[in-house]
Amino acid sequence: MQTKTMIEKVARALILPFMLLICMILTITGKSIAEQPVAEGPLMVKKVEGEVSIFKTVNIQVENLEKWVALPNHDFSKFILYIDGNAVKGLQPTLVDNNTKLQFDLKRIPENKENKDAWTAILSRGPRSFTRTVPITVGIDNSVPIPSTVKANLTIIYQEWFTLFILLSLVAIALFWWLACKSDIIRDTGPQPAGNNRKPFSLARTQIALWFFVVIISYVFIWMVMKDLYILTPSVLGLIGISSVTALGSAVVDSSKRSGQTNKLRIQEEKKSRNEVEAESLQSRVSAFAARGATKNLEEQKAEQESGAELAAKQKEINQANEEIHKLTVAAKPSASKGFINDILSDDEGISFHRFQIFTWTIVLIVIFIWSVYNVLAMPDFDATLLGLMGISGGTYIGFKLPDQPG
C-alpha cells in the first residue's frame, strides 16, 4: 500500500515537467512546419501575352511558377523559351506579375549560333504567310519542355511593310528597264551607230545588273524578316566581284580594240598619203619624159622606164591601202543592236557558245539564289569550285573578245 502511494506521488511530480516538454516539442515542431515553403505543384504553361515577333516582348503565364521560384536552388533565369519546338537560347527571362509570369524580350543574336539557327528554323518553316500559329512553351536548361497546349500567332513579316517593299522593288526594276531601253546603261561602250540605230546590249553589263538587283532585293527581304544586317556571305561577294571584273575586262578589251583599229587606220592613211605624194612626183617625171618624144637619149629612156615601173608600184600600194582603209573603216563602224537576246549571245561571228555558257550559268545560279532566300531565309554560300567555274566562264568571254594579233 505504501509502495503504491509512493508511485502515485512520483507520477504526480513528473506530470508537470512532462507536459512542459510536450508543449515545447509541439511549439518547435509547429514553428519548423510554418517556416517550410509550400510544396510546389506541376508547372504548366497557361497563357501567352504579347506579339510573338522579333524585337517584341512576350509574357508566359506558368501555373505554380510562384511556388517553384520560392523553393531553394530554383533559378528562374535558366528557363528557355520554346517556339514551334525550337529552343530559342540566349534570351534572359524576368519575373513579372508577382512571380506568376516569365517575360522574354524576343531578339535574334547573330553571334549566338544556337539562337540564330533557332530563329532561322522558326521563320523559314512553312506554310508561307505573313503570320502562322505556333505552339509556345518553356523549359529548364536542356530538360524536357513543360507540357503546354498554348498556341500563339507568330508574325513573320508585317504585311504593310512587305507591300511597300514589293512596290518599291517593282518601281526600281521598272525604272531600270526604262533606263536600259532609253540609255546605254547596259549597252556596249563606244560611239553610236549611224541613223536611229542603238548600240548592242552588253552581256557583261547585263550580268552585273542582274546580280545587283538579285542581291539587294534579297538582302532587304531577309533583313525585313530576320532583322539581321550581317547576312552577306563570302560567295555572294565573290559572285559580285567576278561579274564586276568581267564587265571591267570587257570594257577594257573593247576600248583597246577601238584604239587599235584607229591606230591601224591612221597608219594606212599616212602610208597612202606618202605614196600619193611620191606617185605624183613620179607621174610628173614620166610626163616630162613623154613630152620630149624621140629626142630622149638611152639614159633618159631607161630613166623613163624605171619611173614608170615605180609609178605602177606606188599605184598598186595606193590601191592596197585603199582596200585596207575600207576594211578598217567597216570594222570600226559601230554595229547596231539586233535585239536583246541576239546581242548578248552574239559576237562578231554570230551566236557563240562561250556567251551562251556564261548566260546559262548566270540564270541557273540566280534561280538557286532566289530559292535559297525564299525557303531558307539566307543567302547561299556557293563553294570555291562553283565560283571558279564562273570565273573561268568570265575569263573565256573576255578572251574571245581579244583582237587577233598578227604573227
What's a quick, concise take on this entry?
The protein is of the alpha+beta class.
Task: Tell me what the structure shows.
With 407 residues, the chain is an alpha+beta fold. The chain has two domains: 44-156, Sandwich (Immunoglobulin-like); 203-401, no CATH class. The protein is built from ten helices and ten strands. The protein has helices at residues 2-35, 65-70, 113-124, 159-182, 203-226, 234-292, 298-332, 340-345, 353-376, 384-401, and strands spanning 44-49, 57-63, 79-83, 86-88, 94-96, 101-105, 131-140, 151-155, 346-347, 350-351. The strands form three sheets. A four-stranded antiparallel β-sheet has the order 1-2-6-5, with no helix packed on it. It has a four-stranded antiparallel β-sheet with strand order 4-3-7-8. Strands 9-10 form a two-stranded antiparallel ribbon. Strand 5 (94-96) and strand 6 form a beta hairpin. The radius of gyration is 45 Å and the shape is rod-shaped. The model is unreliable at 28-39 (pLDDT under 50).
Distance between the termini: 151 Å
| Strand and helix order | HEEHEEEEHEEHHHHHEEHH
Categorize the overall geometry.
rod-shaped
Number of domains: 2
Main β-sheet, spatial strand arrangement: 1-2-6-5
How much of the sequence lies in strands comes to 5-15%
Mean pLDDT: 81
Gyration radius, to the nearest Å? 45 Å
Structural class: alpha+beta
What are the low-pLDDT stretches, counting only 5+ consecutive residues below 50? 28-39
Largest sheet: 4 strands, antiparallel
In DSSP terms, counting alpha (H) and pi (I) runs of 4 or more, how many helices? 10
